[in-house]
Each structure stands twice: as structure tokens, then as C-alpha cells.
Design brief:
Blueprint lengths: L2 H11 L1 H40 L2 E5 L2 H4 L12 H10 L1 H4 L2 E16 L4 E10 L1 H7 L23 E4 L1 H7 L28 H19 L14 E7 L5 E11 L5 H4 L2 E5 H9 L8 E6 L5 H15 L5 E5 H4 L2 H38 L1 H9 L4 H36 L3 E2 L8 E2 L8 H27 L3 H5 L3
Helix pairs in contact: 1-15, 2-13, 2-15, 2-16, 13-15, 13-16, 15-16
Length: 477
């Protein structure tokens, strides 16, 4: 009779203990795979969110990452549109690119004359149509809603405020709940104090000069009027050190997740932001975001982009970085989840090893006389050891397969419930999903690890059984 048949019969001799051990392993494997599937989905969800905003590859001034936040204009890309067009003109690069779009970010001051409020803000200039296309990217098929960019199809002077900015500037009509705006709070006494209208006057001068320029060019389009309760004036210092002011119409608000960003974020069109900081006719941007069709092309794209920039723009102080370099939070979060997963896996492996070792030890204790008999019949010590190790391996294999099947059933059940949750820093609820069946590497790894460690756990007891003296084993009661 083959050794594995003997091992199977031995396991069936005490079904209750064998089933309990296999179920313990199955529960541990199910829990491990479910958390691993949740971790995998959460990482894909996070990466999809960042890629939809920043892309995979970012082209910047070589010193922007270290010093750009202090002086974005100084560390901007001189001819950003030429760089973008050069990328799209290369067939090898263009075939890998889903979207390539300029971004412009700089600090400024925003004021709301109707409420006599102002605060420092962070202007983020974006191409709304490009951003809408970037939001459709979903390589991993995560259950994340696709929404067009709020500025898409809106007038050039439109602005989207963080809810904190709108609340502090008291642009109440743009908030979902105007009662939370604070507009009814009593204002400090300002008797006989003239209202400072410098910012509003600058905005009016800028608007007048813009209309005069349009009239000089024979433009027939009338100037757009902005309702006072939706108008904000944004002041920025141009690269020549001259203050520049533009009036924007607030079309709505959008929570940014983090309060610090929510209290400072203002999204406007890229062209409007560029005119505000650099003046009309400029081509600068603080970065160019490149979104790839396939994230597996990331390293190849970085190398080819660097080679293209060196050839087309020799001497230009440009750097090519990945989204992970620009947003270190991504790697930190992935590392945190990997650490938690490793810790949970260690605990489950310890439980599995203890259970298997206890089961094998109990089986050896019950079969001590039997061990002496088969040894007296000529069975070698190595064969006795192999027999008990094979029993442990079969227990682990059955328990792991049951655990894998259970995790797949739980995956289908959890995903069918359409659960949602709000991760830290998220502006809206995200779907809570688990992917086990699609993570074949994780499933195969769990199978191998469970079987290997369960077998190793049985080694001490099996070795002890193999070294029993025949005489002592035969007279054991």
C-alpha cells in the first residue's frame, strides 16, 4: 500500500480531530486571503485616484520638487506646451500615453468683495477637458465612479473652491448648505472705517483693460458678467513683480478630503491661471502630467521621456519623475498595509503551526504501540517520520483548499453587498471590495506557505516518533 494511502487512512481514524485541525487552518487562510484581497483592492483604488489626478509620469523643472512650492514661477517649465507637443509627436511615446496635460500651481490671495473677506489660497490651474479624460482611466477595473471635471464646458473665468475656502470667503450660495457659511455671524464693529476696495479696484481695472483689448481686436463677444455673490478676485504677483488680478465666477465647491487642502484649494482653468501668473501669451507650467494606458510601461516611459527631452531640449533643466516620487504618501501607505498584512500572516501561521504540532503529537501518543509494531516489522525510522510529515501535509493541504474556496465565496458575498467606506483623506465614500480570485499570486503563496509551515511544525513530533525504541514503544500503555 502506498504511503499516502496509509496517511489518509490514519487521518480518517480520528475524523473529529482531523476535521477540527483542517477547519482551523481553513479559517486562518480565509481570513488571511480576505484581508489580502482587501489590501490589494485598496492599493489599486488609491493608485487609481492618484493617477486620475497626477498621471504616472511628471515632467518638472529639475529643482521644482525641492524649491518649487516657495517660488513656482521661478521653477516652472519655460515652454511647457512645446514639451507636451514633443511628447505627443513621438509615435513610440504617443502610443503609450493616454493623456498629457499641463498643470500650474501657485499661492495667491483671494478676496470676496461682497462679504469683505479675503485669504491666502493655492491656485491649481488645470485643463478641464484633459482632466475629464484622465478621470476615465481604470486599468484595474476598480468600482470607482467616473465624473467629468466640474470646469469642463464652463466659461474660462470659472473657479471651483474647496468647501473650506468657500466658507471662509463666505461665498455662501456655492456651498451645499449655505447655513454653515457663517454669513449670519455678527461682523466686528467698523464704524466710520472706510472699506478697503484696493483688490476690487484692481480687478475692475483688469476687467476694463481686458474689454478694451477685445474691442481693439474687433471682438464681438460681450464681457461676461459675474454675480456679486459668486465673484471672487484673485491677486498674484507676476514674474515681473507686478500684481495681477482676475475676477472668477465660483461655479461650486468640492471637498478635498484633508482640511488643510480644503481650506486653501482653488481650481481654475489652466489658461486663466497662466495668464494670472505669467501674463497673456505665456506658455509656462509648473509640471506636465503624463497618464499612461498601461502602468507596466512606467519605467520604459521614464527612460524614453528622459532620452527625448535630452535630444529635443538640450540643456533645459527638466526632470522626469514618477507619481510615487512626487507623492511619497503612496509608497508609505503601501508599506504600511504590507506591514500589517505581514503581521497578521505571522499570527495566523503561528496558530496553524501550533494546531498542526498539537494534532500530530496527540496522534503519535495514541499510536505509540503501533509505531513499535511497524518498526519491529522492519519499517525504517525515516519511513515513520515521512508518514507523520505526510499526514501533516495532507491536513494543511485540505485545510488550505477549503480556506481558498471559503474566501472566494466570501469575496462574492462581500462584493454583492455594495458596501462603502471613507478612507482617511478621501472626499467621498469609496466602495469596499475584496479581490481574492484575481490575486492568483497571493492565493498560490498562501497555499505554499500554509503547507510548508504546517509540515515544518510536525517535524519535531515526527522525529521523536521515529526515534522511539521498539521495546519501549511496544510496552507503552
Amino acid at each position: 500500500m502506498m504511503l499516502h494511502q496509509v496517511a489518509a487512512r490514519n487521518l480518517l481514524r480520528n475524523r473529529r480531530r482531523s476535521i477540527a485541525t483542517a477547519l482551523t487552518i481553513a479559517i486562518g487562510v480565509t481570513a488571511l486571503l480576505l484581508f489580502g484581497g482587501f489590501r490589494a483592492d485598496l492599493i489599486k483604488l488609491m493608485l487609481t485616484g492618484y493617477v486620475r489626478t497626477l498621471g504616472h509620469v511628471i515632467v518638472q523643472h529639475q529643482d521644482f520638487f525641492e524649491y518649487g512650492s516657495g517660488n513656482p514661477a521661478q521653477y516652472s517649465i519655460e515652454d511647457a506646451m512645446a514639451v507636451r507637443n514633443a511628447l505627443l509627436a513621438q509615435p513610440d511615446l504617443a502610443s503609450r500615453i493616454h493623456v498629457a496635460t499641463p498643470l500650474l500651481m501657485f499661492p495667491s490671495v483671494a478676496g470676496h468683495a461682497a462679504r469683505e473677506t479675503s485669504k491666502t489660497v493655492l491656485i491649481n490651474g488645470q485643463e478641464a477637458e484633459d482632466q475629464s479624460l484622465m478621470r476615465t482611466w481604470n486599468y484595474w477595473g476598480v468600482r470607482m465612479p467616473v465624473k467629468p471635471h466640474p470646469l469642463a464646458g464652463k466659461p474660462a473665468n470659472s473657479a471651483l473652491l474647496g468647501t473650506g475656502v468657500a466658507r471662509m470667503l463666505q461665498v455662501c450660495s456655492a456651498l451645499p448648505d449655505p447655513q454653515q457659511c457663517g454669513a449670519r455671524a455678527p461682523r466686528p464693529p467698523v464704524a466710520n472705517t472706510p472699506v478697503n476696495t484696493d483688490l476690487l479696484n484692481l480687478a475692475e481695472d483688469e476687467s476694463t483693460s481686458s474689454q478694451s483689448a477685445q474691442a481693439a481686436k474687433g471682438s464681438q463677444s460681450p464681457a461676461q458678467s459675474v454675480p456679486a455673490d459668486r465673484a471672487i478676485e484673485v491677486l498674484a504677483a507676476t514674474t515681473r513683480g507686478v500684481p495681477n488680478v482676475k475676477t472668477f465666477q465660483v461655479i461650486g465647491t468640492e471637498s478635498q478630503g484633508f482640511k488643510e487642502m480644503d481650506d486653501a484649494y482653488v481650481i481654475v482653468g489652466y489658461q486663466a491661471a497662466r495668464d494670472l501668473l505669467f501674463g497673456r501669451g505665456s506658455t509656462q507650467a509648473t509640471s506636465i502630467a503624463i497618464q499612461l494606458n498601461n502602468p507596466d510601461d512606467l519605467q520604459t516611459m521614464v527612460e524614453k521621456t528622459r532620452a527625448m527631452l535630452a535630444a529635443k531640449f538640450p540643456g533645459a533643466p527638466l526632470a522626469v519623475r514618477t507619481v510615487n516620487e512626487v507623492a511619497p504618501f503612496i509608497d508609505q501607505t503601501i508599506s504600511m498595509f504590507n506591514t500589517i498584512f505581514g503581521f497578521i500572516a505571522t499570527l495566523i501561521i503561528a496558530v496553524v503551526m501550533f494546531t498542526v504540532a498539537n494534532t500530530v503529537s496527540a496522534s503519535i501518543l495514541e499510536r505509540t504501540t503501533e509505531i513499535g509494531t511497524i518498526r519491529a516489522l522492519g519499517l525504517r525510522r525515516s519511513t515513520v517520520m515521512q508518514l507523520f510529515l505526510l499526514e501533516a501535509t495532507m491536513l494543511a493541504l485540505v485545510g488550505t483548499l477549503v480556506g481558498i474556496a471559503g474566501s472566494v465565496v466570501m469575496e462574492l458575498l462581500i462584493n454583492s453587498m455594495q458596501l462603502s467606506w471613507r478612507p482617511p483623506g478621501a472626499a467621498e465614500d469609496m466602495p469596499l471590495t475584496v479581490s481574492v480570485f484575481r490575486e492568483l499570486g497571493m492565493v498560490a503563496g498562501a497555499l505554499v506557505v500554509a503547507v510548508v509551515f504546517a509540515t515544518l511544525a510536525a517535524v519535531p513530533a515526527a522525529n521523536k516518533a521515529a526515534r522511539l525504541k521498539i521495546v519501549d514503544a511496544l510496552r507503552f500503555t
